[in-house]
Amino acid sequence: MADRLRDAAVPVQLEVWPGMTHVWMSVVEEIMEAHLAVRHITDFVARHVS
Length: 50
Prior knowledge:
The structure is a single chain. This protein has one domain (15-50). The protein is 46% helix and 0% strand. The chain contains two helices and no strands.
C-alpha cells in the first residue's frame, strides 16, 4: 500500500516494528516503544497537515 500511495504522490512513511502486534502503539502505558511510535505519527501529521 505504501508503494501505491507514493506512486500517487501521497506523502507516506512506512515503519515496520518487528515483534509488535497490531495497533500496539495504542498501549503507551505498557509498551515503551509506543511512545516513540506515537511521536513519529504526530511528527508526520504535523509535517503534512497544515
